[in-house]
Design brief:
5-stranded parallel sheet; Rossmann fold; 4-stranded antiparallel sheet; 14 strands; Gyrase A, domain 2; alpha/beta; single chain; binds arginine; 23 helices; 5 domains
Length: 587
């Protein structure tokens, strides 16, 4: 049971076919095995789809093969013997179908139970990555879009971390715009002797609105505000202090949200990259990328109607110049191989232009499948019941903290209705309501293909039926209670018991468990967390199939089946963990 982990199931099958292909077509060294799960499980578990493509490659070259079928036959014959494969067959024009050995599936699962789920971590070709996510703007509201970015970014970071990638979780907060001139000037006006405390500008949003109003209605104030920007960017002490104060107050607000969501982030805001902008622009300039246009300095990008402005007409830098400097910094100072930006789809154009500029400058390779790589993870809008941008009754926009509060309190009400207030302590009730409530909000977001808009609906996400976190957490708790109620010591069983997959429903569940690694790999290389949600939901379905048809406690297969229950619970917990969901303590 102590054999070393050798990658995901799919990778292990691919390895066998790689060897076979080397023997079958020794002159075609660049051919990679094309392995996919079988469309129809009646034919097998996985299939190798290389034969057709190979045939078109070799047919003109005086080959011994008579067609794709005969290539398929040879691929099958040349497979090295392995305990992984039970049997193979050829279908259609040379597809090689593989039926996996259920003894081997069982053994692999048992090995994971003994050595831990970390041994199932996918292997990725990179060591370091930046995930740039959440990234609210100081003094402006942190809206649901930022909640989506926070949730999606966190889960991507978690999946990469699980895959042993060193992830720099970056909060690229907007802390350096021209709005600071106005804010600082207003601060000076409101608190002439500098006695600002949290309460005084506790509601930063209101403060922002008030200063904006002043800015728009009083030309003298406006002029002072514009000068204040210059003073701030010039590093004048008084202005720097006021700026830091405003950032600090804002930061405390969004850190409350992160704490509730259990999300870790390291702030490196726009201001951090400011000193690197001139250098980065100089490099781009040397490459002849920057041109003068209508008084601004810009980069023209092929196929785009508008250029990327990197120095404004007034000489100031902007969002794009900051992003170019940050990209340079991340590649050259932090030496990361992959930079992932999580924002709404509305910023796609911006990132396309920034990435294209970086490619033309030679900072990034021209090919998208090579590292270092930059990827934009765009997501759609959060909609309300009315199909419009999500808002709450009382306010124009949704305060994130209120939203989380409501999820929690609704959960608490549901728990109390189920009589939990009598069984649990107040802390237990609270802890569970929090875990389920926040988990529900996250899962409702993550289960959708991120590029689409989704409708925010408390009733739906907190339902205990259907594809919801509540249902899945409940399914997990039920599995744990089956194990607990058996009265067996599961840790002991892992060591002395044997897992067997005799019943067809056991085999289906076992195979699904073994596919965990390749699903995580797919979800984080293609940057689609919904793939993992789908996997988790199907896992609970497969478990139900198994549990409906296979008696666990009291059967002659009890030990084996308890091990299968435990493996399911372990994988489910890892899924929850990767999705940022905390299962409530057992009740
Ligand atoms: N602050 C921006 C916003 O709220 C998001 C920043 C995303 N990251 C970046 N490197 N541009 O829209």
């Amino acid at each position: 049971l102590d054999q070393e982990n050798v990658g995901s199931l799919k990778q292990q099958i691919a390895k066998l076919f790689e060897e076979s292909l080397r023997l079958t077509v020794p002159d075609e060294l660049d051919v990679e095995p094309a392995i996919a799960p079988c469309q129809n499980p009646r034919f097998g578990d996985y299939q190798c789809n290389n034969a057709m493509g190979l045939w078109s490659k070799v047919k003109g070259k005086g080959t011994q093969f008579r067609g794709p079928q005969s290539i398929g036959q040879a691929i099958m014959k040349n497979l090295p013997s392995s305990e992984i494969i039970d049997s193979c067959s050829i279908a259609g024009p040379g597809f090689v179908n593989v039926v996996l050995s259920k003894q081997w599936i069982a053994k692999s699962i048992q090995r994971m139970l003994v050595n831990g789920i970390e041994t199932w971590a996918p292997k990725l070709p990179i060591e370091r990555a930046v995930v740039d996510f959440s990234s609210p703007n100081i003094a402006k509201e942190m809206h649901v879009g930022h909640l989506r970015s926070t949730i999606i970014g966190d889960t991507l970071a978690r999946m990469l971390e699980y895959s042993n990638v060193n992830v720099l979780r970056r909060n690229h907060v907007g802390d350096w715009g021209t709005q600071f001139g106005m804010l600082i000037e207003y601060l000076f006006e409101m608190f002439p002797n500098g006695e600002v405390n949290d309460q005084a500008i506790g509601d930063l949003e209101a403060f922002y609105k008030a200063s904006k109003q002043r800015f728009d209605s009083d030309p003298a104030f406006k002029e002072r505000a514009q000068k204040a920007v210059v003073s701030l960017q010039g590093g004048e002490e008084r202005y720097r202090t006021a700026w830091a104060r405003i950032c600090e107050i804002s930061r405390r607000g969004y850190e409350r949200v992160y704490e509730r969501l259990g999300v870790e982030l390291e702030e490196k805001g726009e201001s951090f990259y400011n000193p690197y902008i001139p250098g980065a622009l100089e490099l781009l300039s040397q490459q002849g990328l920057i041109e003068e246009s209508e008084g601004a300095r810009v980069i023209f990008i092929e196929g785009k109607n508008i250029p990327l402005i990197v120095v404004k007409r007034d000489g100031g830098y902007n969002y794009a110049s900051t992003d170019l400097a940050a990209l340079w910094y991340r590649l050259n100072e932090e030496k990361v191989e992959w930079i992932i930006y999580v924002t709404d789809v509305g910023q796609r154009e911006h990132f396309e232009m920034v990435f294209t500029a970086a490619k033309r400058a030679g900072w990034l390779p021209a090919e998208d499948n090579k590292y270092p790589k930059a990827s934009h993870v765009g997501f759609g809008l959060v909609l309300g019941e009315d199909g419009k941008r999500f808002r709450t009754r009382s306010t124009e926009t949704v305060k994130l903290v209120d939203l989380l509060d409501e999820a929690k309190s609704r959960c608490k009400t549901a728990l109390i209705e189920r009589g939990k207030a009598e069984q649990w302590t107040a802390e237990e009730l609270d802890e569970t309501a929090e875990a389920v409530g926040y988990g529900a909000v996250k899962y409702a977001d993550l289960k959708n293909n991120r590029t689409t808009n989704y409708t925010f609906n408390f009733d739906q996400m907190l339902s205990d039926k259907g594809n919801t976190a509540v249902y899945l957490l409940y399914a997990h708790a039920r599995i744990c209670s089956i194990i607990r109620k058996s009265g067996k010591d599961i840790e002991e069983l892992k060591k002395v018991g044997t897992l067997e997959l005799a019943h067809p429903d056991e085999r289906v569940l076992g195979l699904h468990l073994l596919q965990f690694a390749e699903i995580v790999e797919e979800a984080c290389t293609n940057l689609f967390p919904n793939v993992l949600c789908e996997y988790l939901y199907n896992l609970s379905e497969d478990f139900t199939g198994f549990y409906t048809n296979c008696q666990v406690v009291g059967s002659s297969e009890e030990i084996s089946r308890l091990l299968l229950c435990e493996a399911t619970a372990v994988v489910m917990r890892k899924c929850f963990h990767l999705l940022g969901i905390t299962p409530p303590p057992p009740s």
